[in-house]
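Example 3.2
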Amino acid sequence: MAEAFYSPRHLYYDGQIKMASGSTFRSINPSTAQPLADIHAATKPDVDAAVHSAQSAFPSWSKTPPVARARILLKAVQILRERNDEIARLETQDTGKPVSETSTVDVVTGADVLEFFANLVAGGGLHGETIQLREDAWVYSKKEPLGVCAGIGAWNYPLQIALWKSAPCLAAGNTMVYKPSEFTPLHGLMLAQLYTEAGVPPGVFNIANGGGDIGAYLTTHPSIAKVSFTGQVPTGQKVASSAAGGMKYVTMELGGKSPVIILPDADIGNAVDGAMMANFFSTGQVCTNGTRVFVPSHMKSQFEETLLGKMEGIRPGDPMDPNTNFGPLVSEVHYKKVMDYVRHGIDNDGAKLLCGGVEKPKSIEGFEGGYWIKPTVFTNCNDSMKIIQEEIFGPVLTILTYESIEEAIQRANATPLGLAAGVFTKDLNMAHKVVARLEAGITWVNTWGESPAEMSVGGWKQSGVGVENGKRGLEAWVRNKSTLIDMGGVVPTVFAKI
């Protein structure tokens, strides 16, 4: 086996690297299937030590004025942006995503969110309310931090997700123990050291590497006040259930089976561009993927022809080549899972394979050992097919036809998931009407996938609990304290003598 490229990764707490006492696993470069680094997993005592470090840091950090916390976090933003390309290359090696993507999306959007929350708390975002009840009575409320919080990351946007969780957490005055995904863990130590360099005090942000057992231990740890999890629905349900047993606050960002509805008046070229972004960006490994593309029956042939013409713009290849815009799947396990779905679509569901399939792309010379898949399109699909009902989390676009807009809306909503949805049309009045009826927490009109820091995002139904980002995203990291002050000089009582 090839030598690991990076030095071993251990834990990080008390503002420094700590030796882990658990087993060792390897981070793998998905484009080559070669090892990147040995990762030393935490044990329960290691997690206890990291949580204790966060507990010790909480009193001072929570009492630090918001504007002072913001200055430190804005320094971290500056460092992230100065090292954008360096960090992007690390993310590309760990995830397989092209550097053309990690350098323009992953690091950039993570830094944007950190900047947003730093500025929000510096500008009064943690202020409470003051209400005069009557002449001699007032109520005021305060937003107070929760305490030590756990962040459990996903493998598809490692750094971005770590920042989406740690930014509001730290800005609100909490401390965090963060567990990166075991499939893409390299960003964890880098981010922790970057925070320390920016001036974040020891113990405020800590890293515990490991698998599901470490995530489960964090979730049930008695000293953890909140759990923020991003991942699959079944795992999220277990995490939420465990956290509920300890009455912990939770934010769950889970999966989806999102619909893209092409209305009859839509510009075909724009609609195809949107559908491709909804399915092939990040090799389809995006929770908001719009995998169910609803097309009017009379537009099906034109949509398919336009789509096939534009598929030539998808360029698999060396992820470090800036011209590459399509990478491999993240791991061998996930590669096998997605391939099973593609085979099922062909052999069992009976959908028509328009392009793609089970072979690897031809333009990956030197990377044949990696977890590559062709961008795949199925047509002649129906709602009962497995590839229509279940989240694939890969570059698999499915085309469904409809006769009326009412039918399209009903079928779009016929899923237990409700993360995202989108509409393509020239009629904005109709767009508003359709979007209003779609059962999803994130909706787009004539675009797909953009999620700016100012936009609160979260799933409906089984796709999640709570929101991330935007002003509402800060509320998920504080608890309310209300105080009523009576200045009348007399305590009202029902126990006076008669």
